Amino acid sequence: MSDKPFLTDVKTLRERARQHIQDGAVTAGYGGDTKTAIKLLNDALATEIVCVLRYKLHYFVARGIHSGHVADEFLQHANDEQAHADRIAERIVQLGGDPDLSPEGLVSRSHTEYVETQDLAQMIRENLVAERIAIDSYRELVAYFAPFDSTSRKMLEEIMAQEEDHADDLADLLHRLPKDIEH
Ligand SMILES: [Fe+2]
Ligand SMILES: [Fe+2]
Asked: What is the pLDDT of residue 178?
């Protein structure tokens, strides 16, 4: 699994997401395009779930290596990503859609990857990469929703702000890591 057989090309996924955004011509009212909106939110939902799973994995593995605040931070992030997933799922229902929680194809719907590693520094780096991808994706989604759906836009901005905090936390962890490992 460490050879990444299930990992989908992030670039392709993001190009696809961008294409959907371009397809979504903003018309009067919402009616015309809820299908695209729900599809985009379901991709964001898949991304959050993959992030929950990756952070949970890293939490348990990190706890075995080094039971410090790195593991605690991963767990905190896993819980935050779960809360994001729940908010997005709720919004999908409000828009008349069904949250896609199917495990089948989950990784290919996600913008971020599920990375298995035993290396603490690599865990932090992979999570930082994932957060940066998530931030970019949310920025695009915010721009997509802004003209016609202020509720979704606001939710996505709030989630994006938390992803920015996560990225900061991880950058700090990476910086402090050599010191932590000595103890
Ligand atoms: Fe998140
Ligand atoms: Fe995050």
From this structure: 73
